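Incident review: delayed structure delivery

Summary: a single-chain prediction request sat in the queue longer than the usual turnaround. Root cause was a stuck worker, restarted by the on-call engineer. No data loss occurred. The affected request and its eventual output are reproduced below so the record is complete for anyone auditing the incident later.

Affected input:
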Amino acid sequence: MQSKSLPNQITTWVALSTVVEEFAVWQQRTDRKFADESTEILAYLMDQLEAESEPLIGKSLNHPVHGLLSHMSSKNNRMRELLFAYLAIVLSQDCEPARKLIAGQRLQLGLHAEYVAATCCYGATSES
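Output delivered after worker restart:
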Protein backbone atom coordinates (compact mmCIF):
# COMPACT_ATOMS: atom_id res chain seq x y z
CA MET A 1 0.00 0.00 0.00
CA GLN A 2 1.37 3.38 -1.03
CA SER A 3 1.66 6.11 1.54
CA LYS A 4 -0.56 9.10 0.79
CA SER A 5 1.75 11.63 2.45
CA LEU A 6 4.49 13.18 0.36
CA PRO A 7 7.30 12.76 -0.07
CA ASN A 8 7.51 9.00 -0.22
CA GLN A 9 9.74 6.70 -2.24
CA ILE A 10 6.97 5.39 -4.49
CA THR A 11 6.02 8.89 -5.67
CA THR A 12 9.62 10.07 -5.85
CA TRP A 13 10.79 7.19 -8.02
CA VAL A 14 7.63 6.16 -9.92
CA ALA A 15 8.98 7.31 -13.30
CA LEU A 16 12.48 5.96 -12.69
CA SER A 17 12.12 2.61 -10.92
CA THR A 18 9.65 -0.26 -10.81
CA VAL A 19 11.14 -2.08 -7.81
CA VAL A 20 10.74 0.44 -4.98
CA GLU A 21 9.67 -1.09 -1.69
CA GLU A 22 8.94 1.36 1.09
CA PHE A 23 10.98 0.81 4.25
CA ALA A 24 7.90 0.18 6.44
CA VAL A 25 6.60 -2.41 3.97
CA TRP A 26 10.03 -4.06 3.86
CA GLN A 27 10.15 -4.15 7.68
CA GLN A 28 6.78 -5.92 7.83
CA ARG A 29 7.64 -8.32 5.00
CA THR A 30 11.01 -9.36 6.38
CA ASP A 31 10.08 -9.26 10.08
CA ARG A 32 13.76 -9.53 10.97
CA LYS A 33 15.36 -8.30 14.18
CA PHE A 34 18.51 -6.17 14.07
CA ALA A 35 21.07 -5.06 16.62
CA ASP A 36 20.54 -1.37 15.82
CA GLU A 37 19.03 1.11 13.38
CA SER A 38 22.07 1.33 11.10
CA THR A 39 22.22 -2.47 10.68
CA GLU A 40 18.53 -2.57 9.79
CA ILE A 41 18.91 0.27 7.30
CA LEU A 42 21.97 -1.40 5.74
CA ALA A 43 19.97 -4.62 5.24
CA TYR A 44 17.16 -2.63 3.61
CA LEU A 45 19.58 -0.76 1.34
CA MET A 46 21.25 -4.04 0.32
CA ASP A 47 17.87 -5.58 -0.54
CA GLN A 48 16.90 -2.54 -2.58
CA LEU A 49 20.29 -2.47 -4.34
CA GLU A 50 19.82 -6.13 -5.22
CA ALA A 51 16.37 -5.41 -6.66
CA GLU A 52 17.69 -2.46 -8.68
CA SER A 53 20.60 -4.52 -10.01
CA GLU A 54 18.47 -7.35 -11.47
CA PRO A 55 18.64 -5.90 -15.03
CA LEU A 56 22.46 -6.04 -14.86
CA ILE A 57 22.65 -9.79 -14.24
CA GLY A 58 24.36 -11.37 -17.23
CA LYS A 59 25.17 -8.01 -18.83
CA SER A 60 28.70 -7.22 -19.82
CA LEU A 61 30.11 -3.94 -18.56
CA ASN A 62 33.16 -2.31 -20.14
CA HIS A 63 34.77 -2.23 -16.66
CA PRO A 64 33.37 -3.68 -13.42
CA VAL A 65 33.55 -0.42 -11.46
CA HIS A 66 33.51 2.30 -14.12
CA GLY A 67 30.84 0.49 -16.12
CA LEU A 68 28.62 0.16 -13.05
CA LEU A 69 29.08 3.83 -12.13
CA SER A 70 28.30 4.84 -15.71
CA HIS A 71 25.17 2.68 -15.70
CA MET A 72 24.00 4.21 -12.42
CA SER A 73 24.56 7.76 -13.70
CA SER A 74 22.86 7.30 -17.05
CA LYS A 75 20.20 4.66 -16.42
CA ASN A 76 19.53 4.16 -12.72
CA ASN A 77 19.77 7.19 -10.46
CA ARG A 78 18.01 5.34 -7.65
CA MET A 79 20.75 2.72 -7.54
CA ARG A 80 23.30 5.52 -7.28
CA GLU A 81 21.45 7.15 -4.36
CA LEU A 82 21.00 3.79 -2.61
CA LEU A 83 24.73 3.16 -2.94
CA PHE A 84 25.55 6.65 -1.65
CA ALA A 85 23.33 6.10 1.41
CA TYR A 86 24.88 2.66 1.97
CA LEU A 87 28.43 3.97 1.74
CA ALA A 88 27.67 6.89 4.07
CA ILE A 89 26.79 4.36 6.78
CA VAL A 90 29.64 1.95 6.05
CA LEU A 91 32.36 4.58 5.73
CA SER A 92 31.32 7.23 8.25
CA GLN A 93 28.46 5.77 10.32
CA ASP A 94 26.21 8.51 8.88
CA CYS A 95 22.59 7.31 8.60
CA GLU A 96 21.21 10.70 7.56
CA PRO A 97 21.38 10.16 3.76
CA ALA A 98 19.59 6.82 4.21
CA ARG A 99 16.94 8.40 6.43
CA LYS A 100 16.35 11.06 3.77
CA LEU A 101 16.15 8.45 1.02
CA ILE A 102 13.71 6.35 3.08
CA ALA A 103 11.59 9.46 3.62
CA GLY A 104 11.31 9.92 -0.15
CA GLN A 105 13.80 12.73 -0.50
CA ARG A 106 16.30 12.82 -3.34
CA LEU A 107 19.97 13.05 -2.42
CA GLN A 108 21.07 14.61 -5.71
CA LEU A 109 21.14 18.38 -5.89
CA GLY A 110 19.97 20.50 -8.82
CA LEU A 111 16.96 18.47 -9.91
CA HIS A 112 14.31 20.02 -12.15
CA ALA A 113 11.99 22.22 -10.08
CA GLU A 114 8.81 20.69 -11.60
CA TYR A 115 9.94 17.18 -10.61
CA VAL A 116 10.72 18.34 -7.06
CA ALA A 117 7.34 20.09 -6.81
CA ALA A 118 5.41 17.08 -8.17
CA THR A 119 7.05 14.58 -5.81
CA CYS A 120 7.68 16.92 -2.85
CA CYS A 121 11.14 15.32 -2.59
CA TYR A 122 12.51 18.12 -0.45
CA GLY A 123 16.21 18.83 -0.34
CA ALA A 124 16.72 18.05 -4.00
CA THR A 125 17.09 21.51 -5.48
CA SER A 126 20.32 23.44 -5.37
CA GLU A 127 18.45 26.29 -3.64
CA SER A 128 17.49 24.08 -0.64
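Verification: The chain has a mean pLDDT of 85.
Action items: add queue-age alerting; document worker restart procedure.
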